[in-house]
Design goal:
The protein is of the alpha+beta class and 72 residues long. It has one helix spanning 37-57, and strands at residues 10-14, 19-23, 31-34. The radius of gyration is 13 Å and the shape is globular.
């Protein structure tokens, strides 16, 4: 798995968690956090790779990155 993130990431600061949160909307339940923005992104890379590896092992489809998603 390469280290380039092609999935959309939603990154925000959470006061209640006192950390940055990264959500990957195209991969159900895929989230990461970190004390810094950079740490949150690094953790997201690991979680995305783990998510994909697990899906492959379970015989599930891995979605193709769609790029920017549109929200209503």
């Amino acid at each position: 798995m390469d280290n380039i993130i092609k999935f959309e990431l939603i990154i925000f600061w959470s006061e209640s968690d006192d950390s940055f949160i990264v959500e990957v909307p195209e991969l159900a339940g895929c989230k990461a956090d970190g004390e810094t923005y950079e740490e949150a992104i690094a953790n997201a890379k690991m979680v995305i790779n783990d998510w994909i590896e697990t899906a492959i092992k379970m015989g599930r489809e891995v979605p193709k990155p769609k790029g920017k998603l549109m929200y209503a």
